[in-house]
Amino acid sequence: MHTFDEQAEAIAQANIRYALERIRMDPPPLDGPIDAATLRERAGQTITAEGIGGERALKVFEEVLAPACISGDHPRYLSFIPAAPTEASILFDLVVGSSSFCANSWMEAAGAIFAENEALRWLSDLAGFPESSGGVFVSGGTAGNLSALVAARSAFRHRTGHQGRGAILTSSGAHASIAQAGYVMDVDVMPVPGGPRLTGEDLTSFVAQLDSEDLARIFAVVGTSGTTNLGIIDDLEGIADVCSANDWWMHVDGAYGGAGLAAPSARPSFNGIERADSFIVDPHKWLFAPFDCCALLYRNPEHARAAHRQHGEYLEVLYDGEWNPSDYAHHLSRRARGLPFWFSLATHGTKAYSDAVETTISTTHAAARLIEDHPNCRLLAGPNLSIVVFERTGWSGQTMMHGARNSWPLVRGLSSPRALKANPRCAFASSTRTRRKQTSPKSWTRYDWDGWVIAANPSKMGEQPPFDEQPIGRIGLIS
Questions:
Q1: 187 exposed, middle or buried (CB, 10 Å; 0-12, 13-18, 19+)?
Q2: Are 254 and 280 in contact (CB under 8 A)?
Q3: 214-266 per-position pLDDT tens digit
Q4: pLDDT at 182 over 90
Q5: φ, ψ for residue 360 (rounded to 5)?
Q6: What is the spatial distance between Cα 9 and Cα 16, in angstroms, rounded to a whole number?
Q7: pLDDT tens digit string along 186-196?
Q8: What angle do CA 467, 470, 471 make, to 5 degrees?
Q9: Cα gap 20→60, rounded to integer Å
Q10: CB 224 within 8 A of CB 233
């Protein structure tokens, strides 16, 4: 198994050929999920005592398994938060996988960690963090938020001596991972009443109603820079004022929207993030890196190290290094998942990244204007970053949901209408990708499926649907 013989050479060539062909696809196949019974029938028995051989295993993957996965980089993939990794980042992911180093300590992977830290430095500078700041790449926003809040509680306990059940304040629009972090940490997560945007005023009013016992156990406030549903950026300046006055840790969840820091037009909306104690942003969402990659940054990394460093006889030899990523999150062994992002950033330069994020934002604003001008659409929220929320007037929530369910086999990349204040008639439009080939808006296309009109060309949103009473269910902001 560990000899690079003729068989291994053939497997290597076949895998590289497949990877290159997949990268060259423009667009790649959208594909979609298949039930387990059908997959089992088509794939057959793949794990056997003697093995099925690399050639057959790759064939099963290419012909059966890969088509049962949605391509997150397809231009018609508008569900959730799409991905758009650059060719450079994808190719370097192959390099990282073949390099076989464990990037949890400086002793084991100094060069890789140095490069990751260069990319983290750029993100820190965008946020206005000090030179002494630092962090680590983790798997995703859930891991990043949890690790940051563990560090926050550790610093709180060290400062106050409080060992009881802690509490976190956040908004009703916070990502589900904040509540999950509270569950894992066994702390209370208190949503602050108010609108979808958490403000310093709402936070102050809520805090004023708490008794001394509850006040004494608050250790962090979580603000969001780009909510998942609406793209809203909380009042980070106001939150920072309240945190400063109460000596609370301020964490900013920018998993999706934090990439907007790279766009000069959007940067003022993030004012106050420079005062945070920690923040996260996922390069695999809007910074064109492959899955999985979340950047976790700390204003003072020493707080994180005090919380996360593990101790054991087999680990102490690692702790003479300059920077050990294992010290800054809830993990130990890790791949250098930040390297594909670093390589793409080094290859294309930061200006290309800023331009790409700006393009997405400007396209979103153009789509919002077209929605407002359309006789059958009503703009409900946005544009916020790359998100627009709208509805097709005259259609009930039941009709919208029925159309979404019936469209699924044909429109696998599209999600069901999202709820806004429990109104399922609201359709959520979002994209964070740019096309591999830059094209003008006039070259975008319109898709009609099963009673839904999905415009991948916002310029066509001004046209009347080709048949009566058909909802415009979703807009793909593809630039």
A1: buried
A2: yes
A3: 999 999 999 999 988 889 999 999 999 999 999 999 999 999 999 999 999 99
A4: yes
A5: -65, -40
A6: 11
A7: 999 999 998 88
A8: 145
A9: 18
A10: yes
The per-residue pLDDT for range 16-29, each reduced to its tens digit, is 999 999 999 888 88
SS3 at position 79: coil
What tokens were used for 405? 């369910």
How many angstroms separate the CA atoms of 103 and 107, rounded? 9
How many other C-beta atoms are found inside a 10 Å radius of the C-beta of residue 281? 30
Tally the C-alpha atoms within 13 A of residue 159's C-alpha that lie toward its C-beta: 15
**Model pLDDT for residues 316-345, shown as the tens digit of each residue:** 777 776 899 999 999 999 999 999 999 999
Cα separation, 133 vs 297, whole angstroms? 7
**Strand 452-455 and strand 472-475: pairing?**
parallel
Q: Which of 102, 101, 117 is nearest to 322 (CA)?
A: 117
Return the CA Rg of the chain.
Answer: 24
Burial degree of 319 (CB within 10 A; 0-12, 13-18, 19+): middle
pLDDT of residue 390: 80
Residue 137: pLDDT band (50, 70, 90) is very high
Q: pTM of this prediction?
A: 0.86
Q: What stretch of H or E contains 149?
A: helix 141-160
Residues 6+ apart with CB under 8 A from 313: none
Which residue, 406, 139, 422, 450, is CA-closest to 293?
A: 139
- List pLDDT tens digits, range 384-440: 998 888 877 776 656 555 555 444 433 334 444 455 554 544 444 444 444 433 333
Closest alpha carbon to 202 in 171, 240, 228: 171
Helix (H) or strand (E) segment spanning residue 198: none
Please enumerate in sequence order all residues whose Cβ is within 8 A of that of 417, keeping only pairs 6 or more positions apart, or say none: 397, 400, 401, 404, 424, 425, 426, 427, 428, 473
Residue 373 CB-density burial (10 A; 0-12 exposed, 13-18 middle, 19+ buried):
exposed
Q: How many CB atoms sit inside 10 A of residue 160's CB? A: 12
